[in-house]
Amino acid sequence: MRPARVPLRWKIAALAAATACLVAVAVGLLVHVWTAQDIQGRAEMRASNGVFSAVDTYRRTGTLTGGAVLDPAELPYALRNPADDDRHTAYDGSVHGNVGPSVWAAQRVDGPGSPVLALQVNMSTERHELFRLDLVMAVASLIALAAATPLRSTEPG
């Protein structure tokens, strides 16, 4: 017994559906990567600007502002001993309680050997929003694919 032949129109429909799936996945990945990079870039900018302001205030008044701390224990290793007086940032993907992932910014307050003033910017909310965006895009892609998939023909074939 020979297997039933699949009509050409179904082969074309299957190819169109597969192409639509690949396009949806590619667009979803691009949007995810670009959004994740934007989230991290904005967090780095907030942290760097916050440290700039906090160091300025600390140098003038000796007080810590804006959530800045001196030599915090949880500061990423890459920021613990900066060799210069420039601001540096580092991504910390770990999660501690309700904080994380985060971006840290740090700067020495007054030259070599002086304490490191640091600020942590929590990205939990933004990462949750990214997850929600991914979920909405996946559901929308599935709905669009279901709508675009041709229904079974009742014509004799």
What is the tally of beta strands? 4
Mean of all residue-level pLDDT scores: 86
- Across the major sheet, the strand order is 1-4-3-2
Shape: rod-shaped
Largest sheet: 4 strands, antiparallel
The radius of gyration is 26 Å
Order of helices and strands: HEHEEEH
Low-confidence stretches: none
Structural class: alpha+beta
How much strand?
Answer: 5-15%
Tally of helical segments: 3
Helicity, as a percent range:
40-55%
How far apart the termini lie comes to 19 Å
Give an overview in words.
The chain is an alpha+beta fold and 157 residues long. It has 3 helices and 4 strands. Strand 3 (102-108) and strand 4 form a beta hairpin. The longest helix is centred in the first third of the chain and has 54 residues, at 8-61. It is rod-shaped and about 85 Å long.
List keywords for this structure.
4-stranded antiparallel β-sheet; alpha+beta; 53% helix; 157 residues; rod-shaped
